[in-house]
């Protein structure tokens, strides 16, 4: 059974902006359809992915320790962290909101950190282990990234509901800013990772020279 030719064998390059398959025979610098710069591979993929992920991990700690909102009901106010907010919603009978916030705020970032670390370490070790499954794992990380801001929207909805019913007042706290930074940097980390590195053979991988090339350029 014959296998279809690779894009590299046809001298094609996929535009990272519009998705067009561009002919690289004349080595064009930009996509002829959208004008975006063309790269055969995502430049410094591993370095950028590690940098964004570690930055997100650094923000993840204060995002969970600092209060994300202050709720004032009937004159009494209290700060709430993400986890305490989950417990308050659960004890108040709003288990669906509690579950959404827990999954989006705690479970999803944790899964992304573990998955990206696994992908990065196996690629750097030129591992052939479960390549197909690792590719699917990366697609899963991309998919759940779109829902990372769901809990922020829930908090905004709850705040609007409380104020609309004149039950009290809700104000944001610094934790929500840190969590927003976690969402942004985890998304950037996933966007920076080049899944084609999973399928590269040892000796052919551009990532082997990523660090040395960057040092040499400076």
Structure description:
This is Paraquat-inducible protein A. Keywords: Cell inner membrane, Cell membrane, Membrane, Transmembrane, Transmembrane helix. It is found in: Cell inner membrane. The structure is a single chain. It is elongated, with a radius of gyration of 22 Å. The protein is built from seven helices and five strands, in the order ββαββααααβαα. The strands form two sheets. It has a three-stranded antiparallel β-sheet with strand order 4-3-5. It has a two-stranded antiparallel ribbon with strand order 1-2. The chain folds into two domains: 40 residues; 176 residues, Butyryl-CoA Dehydrogenase, subunit A, domain 3. The chain has 218 residues and is mainly alpha-helical. The C terminus is likely disordered. Helix 1 packs antiparallel against helix 3, helix 2 packs antiparallel against helix 3 and helix 4 runs antiparallel to helix 6.
Q: Which structural class best describes the helix and strand composition?
A: mainly alpha
- Please give the domain count: 2
* Beta-strand residue percentage: 5-15%
Number of distinct beta strands: 5
Protein name: Paraquat-inducible protein A
Keywords: Cell inner membrane, Cell membrane, Membrane, Transmembrane, Transmembrane helix
Main location: membrane
Subcellular location: Cell inner membrane
């Amino acid at each position: 059974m014959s296998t279809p030719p690779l894009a590299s064998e046809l001298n094609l390059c996929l535009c990272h902006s519009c998705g067009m398959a561009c002919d690289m025979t004349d080595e064009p610098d930009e996509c002829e359809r959208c004008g975006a710069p063309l790269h055969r591979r995502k430049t410094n993929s591993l370095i950028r992915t590690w940098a964004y992920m570690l930055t997100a991990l650094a923000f993840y700690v204060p995002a969970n320790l600092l209060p994300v909102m202050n709720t004032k009901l009937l004159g009494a106010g209290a700060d709430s962290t993400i986890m305490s907010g989950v417990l308050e919603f659960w004890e108040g009978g709003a288990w669906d909101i509690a579950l959404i916030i827990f999954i989006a705020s705690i479970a999803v970032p944790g899964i992304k950190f573990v998955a990206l670390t696994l992908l990065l370490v196996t690629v750097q070790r030129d591992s052939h282990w479960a390549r197909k499954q690792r590719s699917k794992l990366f697609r899963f990380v991309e998919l759940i990234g779109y829902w990372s801001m769901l809990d922020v929207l829930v908090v905004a909805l709850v705040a609007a509901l409380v104020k609309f019913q004149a039950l009290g007042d809700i104000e944001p706290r610094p934790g929500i800013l840190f969590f927003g930074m976690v969402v942004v940097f985890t998304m950037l980390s996933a966007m920076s990772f080049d899944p084609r590195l999973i399928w590269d053979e040892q000796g052919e991988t551009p990532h082997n020279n990523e660090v040395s090339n960057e040092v040499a350029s400076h």
